[in-house]
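BUG: 3D viewer hangs when loading the predicted structure for this chain

Environment: internal workstation, default settings.
Expected: structure renders.
Actual: progress bar stalls at 90%.

Input used:
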Amino acid sequence: MNNVKTTKTSDRSALGVLTAGTKQPMTERKNVHVAMFSGGASSAYIAYHIVQKYGKDNCILFFTDTLWEDVDNYRFMEEVAEYIGMEITTRIDGRTPEEVFHDVRFLGNSRMAKCSEELKVRQTLIFLEELRDEHNLEPILYFGIGPHEQHRAINLQNFYEHNPIEPIETRFPMIETYKEDLDAKIIIRDEWKIDLPRMYGLGFSHANCAGRCVRGGFGHYALLYKVWPDQYAEQEAMEERFRETFQKDVSILKRNGKAFTLREYRELMERDGVEKYLNEKDDSIPCVCSYS
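Structure tokens produced before the viewer hung:
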């Protein structure tokens, strides 16, 4: 979008302060179509879809960076943006998920992830209100969520109806436009000639935080231990630092309703073999970071 440049911000001021002042009525604002560009194949295809439908001058590719992203995600997003012919509008809080956990004194887990709330959702809400206040634009959000994830679409729709200062419209073209699941991965790989993010090939269901997503469950962390043991070790060390700093018996994973540390899980996998745990059912909820 010509009048909204690619920017980064570390502003953590209260949202109400940032949006203070006289607001234009919604009906007087020009619509702008915002693709929630997460680094996944579906969100990439939706970005292409809205640019084709509404034109480059009326669209934004929006990305919030946690600073834990896999390096190949950046490569993929840049190649997709170049193919579409758009710049990526990026917002950065400036903290990593670990720094957020220490700031709020709460270790993220499958049920509550303050990292998403602070690094993704908060930065998104600030940006959307800036579009309204500073550019007199009314954002419409587009997510790459498919028919098999209807519950996530409903949750996102409810969130953006009630949490911004004024409701924000959300759209899900993979559900609303296409009658069957569209294989965005094949289109991107075979037609666009862009290599998919490497995490897909490694077996991850999403590419959030280079495999260190705190909302991943047992199967997710078993896969991380198998393919990227160094990444697993970093996450294990992060968990131990939090436990030591705050003297709390907490963990990312839970077993029988109690803390089950990544160190304990690693020792279990070393004893029994990691293959035994790759298909372990994940008692988790998809992270709000995942738009695809």
